[in-house]
């Protein structure tokens, strides 16, 4: 998946992706697709940046002197962090921790969403609603009762 899921907002604020890329390059040199995969892994599959944001970020870091191409084969570039990049990253530690916490949180939510119990319950709800709507004969009062039941369930979930 590219970007966040379901329109729940942006995973990264302005400049955050640059910090994460520097962090990953600080671990070890990587190709762009390895950076994409590493970020997806950090978010447990809940977020995966597109090549259209990763490669320009790598180019920017290279222009800023914070990353350098360490290997180029068959048109594929591997990037590493420079001393300037490592120094910049050190100054961004609080921001990095905040960003990594956000990625881990997205991963925890994704893990919970994938539990079999929750998947079964969600599917049961969708099926029941579909079957009831398919029956037809829904007057405004019946629609209101269905909407009220859904609202009560939403409140119960929020409070649990």
In short:
The chain is mainly α and 160 residues long. It has helices at 16-27, 32-42, 51-63, 83-91, 93-113, 116-135, 140-159; strands spanning 30-31, 67-73, 76-81.
Outline the structure in words.
Helix content is 66%, strand content 9%. The model is unreliable at 1-8 (pLDDT under 50). It folds into 2 domains: 16-113, Arc Repressor Mutant, subunit A (Orthogonal Bundle); 116-159. It contains 7 helices and 3 strands, in the order H-E-H-H-E-E-H-H-H-H. It has helices at residues 16-27, 32-42, 51-63, 83-91, 93-113, 116-135, 140-159, and strands spanning 30-31, 67-73, 76-81. Helix 1 packs across helix 5 (93-113) and helix 2 (32-42) packs across helix 3 (51-63). The chain is mostly helical and 160 residues long.
DSSP strand content? 5-15%
- Low-confidence stretches are 1-8
Percentage of helical residues?
Answer: 55-70%
- Helix and strand succession? HEHHEEHHHH
> Over the alpha carbons, how many angstroms does the gyration radius reach?
22 Å
Mean pLDDT: 87
Tell me the span between the first and last alpha carbons: 29 Å
Characterize the overall form.
elongated
Instruction: Provide the number of structural domains.
Output: 2
Secondary-structure arrangement, i.e. CATH architecture of the largest domain: Orthogonal Bundle
CATH fold label of the largest domain: Arc Repressor Mutant, subunit A
**What is the CATH class name of the largest domain?**
Mainly Alpha
Please name the fourth-level CATH homologous superfamily of the largest domain.
Answer: Winged helix-like DNA-binding domain superfamily/Winged helix DNA-binding domain
Structural class, by secondary structure, is mainly alpha
Number of helices: 7
What is the number of E strands?
A: 3
The main sheet comes to:
3 strands, antiparallel
- The main sheet orders its strands as 1-3-2
């Amino acid at each position: 998946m590219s970007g966040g899921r379901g329109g729940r907002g942006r995973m990264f604020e302005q400049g955050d992706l640059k910090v994460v890329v520097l962090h990953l390059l600080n671990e070890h040199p990587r190709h762009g697709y390895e950076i994409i995969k590493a970020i997806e892994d950090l978010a447990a599959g809940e977020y995966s940046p597109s090549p259209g944001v990763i490669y320009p970020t790598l180019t920017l870091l290279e222009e800023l002197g914070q990353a350098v191409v360490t290997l180029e084969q068959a048109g594929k570039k591997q990037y590493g962090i420079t001393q300037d990049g490592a120094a910049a990253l050190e100054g961004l530690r609080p921001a990095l921790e905040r960003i990594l916490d956000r990625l881990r949180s997205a991963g925890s939510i994704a893990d919970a969403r994938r539990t079999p119990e929750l998947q079964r319950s969600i599917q049961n709800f969708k099926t029941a609603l579909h079957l009831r709507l398919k029956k037809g004969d829904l007057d405004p009062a019946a629609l209101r009762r269905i909407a009220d039941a859904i609202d009560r369930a939403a409140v119960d979930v929020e409070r649990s």
